[in-house]
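Q: I have two molecules that I believe assemble together. Could you output structure tokens for the complex as a whole instead of separate predictions?
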Amino acid sequence: MNCHNFSFCDAALKAMPSGALWWPAEELLCVSDLHLGKSERVARRSGQSLPPYETRDTLTRLGSDLDATNARKVICLGDSFDDLTAAQSLSEDERLWIARLQAGRHWIWIEGNHDPGPVEFAGEHLQQLTLQSLTFRHIAETCGQGEVSGHYHPKVRVATRGRLISRPAFLVDAARLILPAYGTYTGGLTSDAARLSQIMQPKALAILTGPRPTCVPMPR
Amino acid sequence: MLDRADAAALLLIAPTGGGKTLAGFLPTLVDLAEAPRDGLHTLYISPLKALAADIRRNLTTPVTEIGLPIRIEDRTGDTPASRKKRQRADPPHIMLTTPESLALLTSYEDAPRIFQGLKRVVVDEIHALADSKRGDQLMLALGRLQRLCPDLRRVGLSATVEDPAAIARQLARHPDPCDILMADPGPAPDIAMLTTAEPPPWSGGNAAYAIPAVLTAVKAHKTTLIFHNTRAQAEIFFHNLWLANDEGLPIGIHHGSLDRVQRERVEAAMVRGDLRAIVCTGSLDLGIDWGDVDLVIQIGAPKNVKRLVQRIGRANHRYNAPSKALLVPANRFEVVECHAALDAVRAGTLDGDPRGAGPRDVLCQHILITACAGPFDANALYDEVRTVGAYAGLSRAAFDACLDFCATGGYALRAYDQWQRLVQRPEDTWQLRDPRATRQIRMNIGTIQDTDTLKVRLRRSRGGKPLGEIEEGFAATLTPGDTFLIGGQIVRYEGLRDMTVEVSRNAAKKPKVATFLGTKFATSTQLSARVIEIFQQDDWSDLPGHTAEWLGLQRSRSQLPKPGRLLIESFPHDGREQTVFYGFAGRNGHQTLGLLLTKRMEEMGLDPLGFVATDYATLIWGLKRLQDPAPLFDLAALEDGMDTWLAGNAVMKRTFRASATIAGLIQRNTPSARKTGRQATFSSDILYDTLQKYDPNHLLLQITREEALRGLVDFGRIREMAERVAGRIDHLTLPRVSPLAAPMLLEMGRVPVKGAAEEKLLAEEAARLMETAGLAQITPPPSDKPKWRVGW
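A: Yes, here they are, computed for all two components at once.
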């Protein structure tokens, strides 16, 4: 698999094509903003019936990343479920599927703004987690250091010769790493948005997801 | 007209200016004068809001003068809410409206009361609706009205068309007959090609060379309309015309991207006769009174002969004077095209493709609209829909699939039982589960696919004056400091604020970014045969000297395409390898060819980046040069995996987006909803990929394939072509673009190919950016070649 290798606060990390973060030394896979159950929540709230397949698509991709890395630890970095009702409304198949992915792994659910409070799935439920030099939490804090977060669904646009390419991306500087959203039905916030320019340092880089993750200076 | 007042359906075909609109109202006026009554008597439907307002004015004047007690009102998107409300409570005798406003009216619970006593429906400019989904929606609404008012008489008014019987079949209730009245076509139009001392360039679309000659023509006439095929061309031409306008003639610009206030001002000035010329696009085609227009100038080759004739017919609004028009080719290829178009006009050949069965996305919307008005019986609705000509052959199973889609989403995975949109009550009665859904459904009414646009305003510190709109995709390519043209002025992009593009005036001589993205014009399929005939001539003494010379140059530097053989030219240009396939197979044929050949080129590692199709040729560009075209046409390889390739293509995704919006799966992107952020928008590409993967037989994917195939030709025909040209390929590798290929480079409607080349472009640009930022690093050599993946 084509991964982009980079080091962040003394940790050697890999940005995977799917938008997952792999930390080989810790055998840890981190994914953010799965938004499982999104189509159910949309139907419940607005009556719009989107194709109800995004949960299985997200889980399929997560499954293949777990297979590829053989991760022993998994961190879901918040907004794993589109809301707490969506978490309860997953089908029996989908619950078993999650249980299967969890088997034999240390699984940590970090709370997000969409899924505050514990969900009824196995694993640890935490506000945040510090592991060696890195702290995992859902939303970046003002003075984060060695902080890995999600929440913003960052994406990046690059104008190449004659084509504008726009993809979900990791944003990274000396102090912070923000993960792209992993869920299938998740939009994105372009890196030139004021909020992202504000929290990322001037020398921040962006790593575009895709078959061959690619690093560029973060467009702002 | 009065003799046929009682016909159930009647189609009147008359050239523009023949007073046919008034004729359409005659039976109504007579009826209401003889037997005054309350309530809605006649519904008039036009394709344009402006036309409805215009007819109201033109009709009100004589009615008031005669003193008839007839109330005439229009009702469109521009009508204030208070008046709309009153119109529902107390409808006028004659209501003038558009297909969309009519659909909205039928969605109200009190529709039966509003339309009670309705006697006549007049559909104006029906030819402009007939070959679009707006027409299908209108006819479904008429089916509904006919059920409410069984004695309803239908009248259609049309400009000259090739196949009046086809329009008549659409208009009448199926299987009722429809009489056709043909008016005297009037004198033949006086059309010529503009000759200039300055030769047109090889390529390009702005016709700057013709500015002095056009100004001279404008001075010699009262009012001139100068039509362009695209908004971008209109902007550039207007800019150049203005710079050359030494005498300060009053000249205006009018196109669909300009702010409404600005458009209305130009329309009003034109009606008053204050303007000598208006640079415009098709937005001025229909509707407003052309008053004293005595010359029509068409810049660029007319892509559609039918539209050209209809346009020209509007000049010299008097019935007996010949209309006068000038064609101004923008480049030398267009000289040949204009020449062919003039031949076609003289021969009286109009183009147009027959329309297939009624599209099912429109039917889905119709079912939802019906549900808004109250509980409905599925059997009755099915019968009603089949009274519409285009849906006469609709099977019950196909109807039920649409009903199921509207009710449950129609997924193989039944996930929304609890939240379904329509619920079934005893018997075959259906109703909305949640009545609040009506709001969303009504907001989504309509079949016109607006590309997402952003408003353009002067910066707030400069007064914040609205200037118009640009496409969101175009806005995304701008960086602060870029200059572009809008409304004939050069502006500087300052930034994006609250979903509005903020600009300042800029004195730059030349705009940096000169194009809107723009959509492809529907083109004719019949000009290509005439064009290839012209190419075969030994000499071109009937063409202007510069164009004869240009064709001679093509013959000596490369060759001219020959019937029965396939000419292919490859050359580097603009940092990419370009290849043109001159198939002369019509635009749909070339679009299909582009899809097939890019697939083969991707497989052969030629890294294609995209293609564009015209009536005559397909241009493909990519990173590597084509050495040997023969393997491209390997039949087995062409067809192998074609479904997967086609499914992942941008053409399918665009089609899906349109159909999913019409059918109500995704919400129309209204600017107000986007601004408040209250509207959940989903990338239609992601929804499409997800459906492809997990529910490939879903109704919307079936509709997408049906709809996309309307713009493509049967692969069987491409196979025939491949067999026919096997061994008859002339492949020339040239050091630079050939005379004939040059115009292709500026064609609109480019289709991106997303394959391995995109990864290479990204890697290349990333390396450059990192280098510039002083962050260059040694990147590991690429491992295995990235595989094609649907969805990127």
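A: One point stands out. The radius of gyration of chain A is 17 Å.
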